């Protein structure tokens, strides 16, 4: 990466695109790079020559298709070779059709279907104020909607982190009303008023956020050996003695969301229990709280 230190940022982006196309598509064409970045073909020719000089053997020209293909010595130097990164980009594009993602998807987005998500409105002004409060370590006076009350509540919070439950964005905050750190669904914050007040409690005092809990997830005890092996592969488990296990270190305040997301809070003996279960369920069941809003 130090080799790019003296290269203009725009050219660095084109070099990364060239490499990403080689990695996932197997080839890259000058015309495609020209269309994506809106620069002249001679600029792209210089980019390709530079990439070849920086990383000899990484690409070779195919006269029959007039494209550059992966060379025998190709190895990603500028981009991640994690398949999940590419698939996540496809998922995001399929869900949002964000044009800005197209350069990262080689020749263009591959046809991709995703499950529909509820159209949950997030106010950009509210998000900006929450981000600002976190950055400045200051408070917010908010109007908050709750399932437990017919009327919005007004409270003062000092947010210090975001959490994602797999379904919702949550603001981890010190709550003046309860005098403790609590979770607030971002989409339920109806209004905000920035306050130039420092938090009465440092974020470092939030043990639920700072303390990690070791969770061990294993295949369901009712599965046969083949089913356990397939389940282990599906969940990225590793061999653990005679079985398989997924070890996860999770912030304590996020445990209820983790258990709910993977349905680990269901009784393994229940008719529709998932294919996975907790190894130490008795110890962890104290965290089987329902997520916000239920």
Automatic annotation (TrEMBL):
<feature type="domain" description="DNA-binding transcriptional repressor CapW winged helix-turn-helix">
    <location>
        <begin position="11"/>
        <end position="91"/>
    </location>
</feature>
<dbReference type="InterPro" id="IPR026881">
    <property type="entry name" value="WYL_dom"/>
</dbReference>
<feature type="domain" description="DNA-binding transcriptional repressor CapW C-terminal dimerisation">
    <location>
        <begin position="214"/>
        <end position="283"/>
    </location>
</feature>
<dbReference type="InterPro" id="IPR051534">
    <property type="entry name" value="CBASS_pafABC_assoc_protein"/>
</dbReference>
<dbReference type="Pfam" id="PF26109">
    <property type="entry name" value="WHD_BrxR"/>
</dbReference>
<dbReference type="InterPro" id="IPR016634">
    <property type="entry name" value="CapW-like"/>
</dbReference>
<feature type="domain" description="WYL">
    <location>
        <begin position="126"/>
        <end position="194"/>
    </location>
</feature>
<dbReference type="Pfam" id="PF13280">
    <property type="entry name" value="WYL"/>
</dbReference>
<dbReference type="InterPro" id="IPR059020">
    <property type="entry name" value="CapW_CTD"/>
</dbReference>
<dbReference type="Pfam" id="PF26107">
    <property type="entry name" value="BrxR_CTD"/>
</dbReference>
<protein>
    <recommendedName>
        <fullName>WYL domain-containing protein</fullName>
    </recommendedName>
</protein>
<dbReference type="InterPro" id="IPR059019">
    <property type="entry name" value="WHD_CapW"/>
</dbReference>
């Amino acid at each position: 990466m130090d080799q790019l230190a003296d290269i203009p940022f725009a050219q660095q982006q084109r070099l990364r695109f060239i490499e990403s196309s080689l990695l996932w598509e197997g080839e890259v064409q000058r015309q495609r790079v020209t269309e994506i970045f809106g620069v002249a073909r001679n600029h792209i020719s210089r980019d390709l020559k530079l990439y070849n000089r920086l990383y000899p053997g990484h690409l070779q020209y195919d006269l029959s298709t007039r494209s550059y293909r992966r060379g025998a010595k190709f190895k990603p130097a500028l981009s991640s070779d994690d398949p999940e990164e590419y698939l996540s980009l496809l998922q995001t594009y399929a869900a949002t059709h964000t044009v800005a993602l197209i350069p990262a998807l080689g020749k263009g987005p591959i046809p991709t279907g995703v499950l529909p998500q509820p159209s949950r409105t997030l106010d950009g002004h509210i998000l900006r104020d929450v981000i600002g409060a976190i950055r400045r370590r200051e408070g917010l006076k908010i109007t908050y909607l709750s399932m437990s009350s017919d009327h919005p509540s007004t409270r003062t919070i000092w947010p210090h982190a975001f959490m994602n439950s797999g379904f919702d964005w949550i603001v981890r905050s010190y709550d003046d009303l309860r005098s403790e750190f609590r979770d607030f669904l971002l989409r339920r914050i109806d209004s905000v008023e920035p306050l130039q007040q420092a938090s009465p409690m440092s974020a470092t005092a939030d043990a639920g956020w700072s303390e990690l809990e070791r969770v061990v997830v294993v295949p369901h005890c009712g599965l046969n050996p083949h089913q356990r092996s397939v389940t282990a592969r599906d969940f990225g488990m590793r061999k653990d003695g005679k079985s398989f296990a997924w070890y996860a270190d999770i912030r304590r305040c996020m445990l209820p969301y983790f258990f709910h997301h993977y349905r680990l809070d269901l009784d393994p003996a229940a008719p529709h229990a998932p294919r996975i279960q907790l190894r130490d369920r008795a110890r962890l069941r104290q965290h089987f709280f329902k997520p916000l809003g239920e």
